[in-house]
Write a structure and sequence with these properties.
Layout lengths: L1 H14 L2 H14 L14 E3 L2 E3 L3 E3 L10 H6 L4 E7 L12 E4 L4 E4 L8 H10 L7 E5 L8 H12 L6 E4 L14 H17 L1 H4 L4 E5 L5 H13 L4 E4 L13 H4 L4 E4 L3 H15 L5 E4 L5 H10 L3 E4 L2 H4 L3 H15 L14 H5 L6
Parallel strand pairs: 3-4, 3-13, 4-7, 7-8, 8-9, 9-10, 10-12, 12-13
Antiparallel strand pairs: 1-2, 5-6, 6-11
The protein binds flavin mononucleotide.
Flavin mononucleotide binds next to strand 4, strand 6 and strand 11.
Length: 364
């Protein structure tokens, strides 16, 4: 299935408008035959937040925003799927065009602005597949027009907890005006307190759903100090580093497309996101696991993320430019690293380079 898709469908998808290509890819996955993926090497299993991930390679939020194809994605060999962002009410997002490829840079700019079918539609789909297992996280967003965005998250926690393997709180999308202000210390402390309180209130019904905080790679280090301190104090289960960046490096080759407003992801994000991951790792001091995301496009970059501090990985943009064989390529590189004696277990490699990375000059 992967071979067929890579050979025939990808060149076609690349020729299309990016958003049309995305909806075609979702349609193709809906129709794809469900062959069981090959069993993962047991050394790839990751235990984190009380969950057992069969392998560390997940698909990041934003690909399956509406929970349409979690099982097809799991069958492609991903160890986990993050659905969303899901908002309480349906909303259309920003006007099109709002998704752009920077071909020569292998980057993507999006300003989708939380286009969501809303919690009711997404939860109905997830309820219908609930007995199929697999790790399916749900990423939460707030409605643009909401008068109390914090309350949107608190409300969603209660609704999604029974169906989510884990919940990720996305307060780092650059495409909803002022959303990232929720990362400011006083606001964040109050928000996380309310979120954890609500999660604990529904434990009887939903089980102990882990709550992860997804942050922006554009935080200053002083802001990161605050965010990590608050996440630790409030008993958050993990952090995802990170979302897309609003920065535009002057070395980007497609400077014309780079002028489009929105969040940049893919290869150009790798240096910044990986540095922020290392900075987070040294501040978290092992209090909880981290998910490394941003610019992973090979086995080598995946291994570098683990060494920067990631227990788990997520990919998205590189799937636009590379074949789906990338998932197997990443897993093979991680197994190779163990076979060539870099460590006995993957977990021994987590964060080994973090301290050294934080001493390097800030990535341009
Ligand atoms: C088209 C697109 C849509 C996205 N939508 C979301 C979203 O709804 N919620 C979210 O938390 N992150 C979203 N993201 C961010 C990704 O989850 C990820 O954090 C980011 O793209 C960096 O990873 P990458 O370089 O592998 O793409 C989106 C990214 C892209 C490219």
């Amino acid at each position: 299935m992967i071979g067929f898709f890579d050979l025939f469908a990808r060149p076609l998808l690349r020729a299309l408008d990016p958003e049309q290509a995305h909806s075609l890819a979702i349609k193709a996955l809906k129709l794809a035959p469900r062959s069981r993926p090959a069993e993962d090497d047991p050394r790839l299993a990751v235990h984190a937040f009380g969950l057992k991930f069969p392998n560390p390679v997940g698909i990041a939020a934003g690909f399956d925003k509406h929970g349409e194809v979690p099982d097809a994605l799991l069958h492609l060999g991903f160890g986990s799927v993050e659905i969303g962002s899901v908002t309480p009410l349906p909303q259309p997002g920003n006007p099109k065009p709002r998704l752009f490829r920077l071909e020569p840079d292998q980057g993507v700019i999006n300003r989708l602005g939380f286009n969501s079918e809303g919690e009711a539609a997404v939860l109905a789909r997830l309820a219908a597949r609930a007995d199929r297992g697999g790790i399916v996280g749900i990423n939460l967003g707030a409605n643009k027009e909401s008068r109390d965005r914090g309350q949107d998250y608190v409300h969603l926690i209660e609704r999604v907890a029974p169906l989510a393997s884990y919940i990720s709180v996305n307060i780092s999308s650059p495409n909803t005006p002022k959303l990232r202000d929720l990362q400011h210390a006083a606001v964040l402390d109050d928000l996380l307190a309310r979120i954890v309180e609500k999660r604990d209130l529904v434990i009887d019904r939903a089980g102990p759903t882990p709550v992860l905080l997804k942050i922006s790679p554009d935080l200053s280090l002083a802001q990161l100090d605050d965010v990590v301190g608050i996440a630790r104090a409030r008993g958050i289960d993990g952090m995802i580093i990170g979302n897309t960046t609003v920065l535009r490096q002057d070395w980007l080759r497609d400077q014309k497309t780079a002028k489009e407003p929105g969040g940049l992801s893919g290869r150009p994000l790798f240096p910044l996101a990986t540095r922020m991951l290392a900075e987070t790792y040294v501040r978290v001091e092992g209090a909880f696991p981290l998910v490394g995301v941003g610019g992973i496009d090979s086995g080598k970059t995946a291994l570098a993320k683990i060494k920067a501090g990631a227990d788990l990985l997520q990919v998205y943009s590189s799937l636009v430019f590379k074949a789906l064989g990338l998932i197997a390529e990443i897993k093979a590189e991680l197994v190779d690293a163990l076979d060539r004696g870099e460590a006995d277990e993957l977990s021994d490699l987590v964060g080994v380079d973090a301290a050294a990375m934080t001493a390097e000059p800030w990535p341009e």
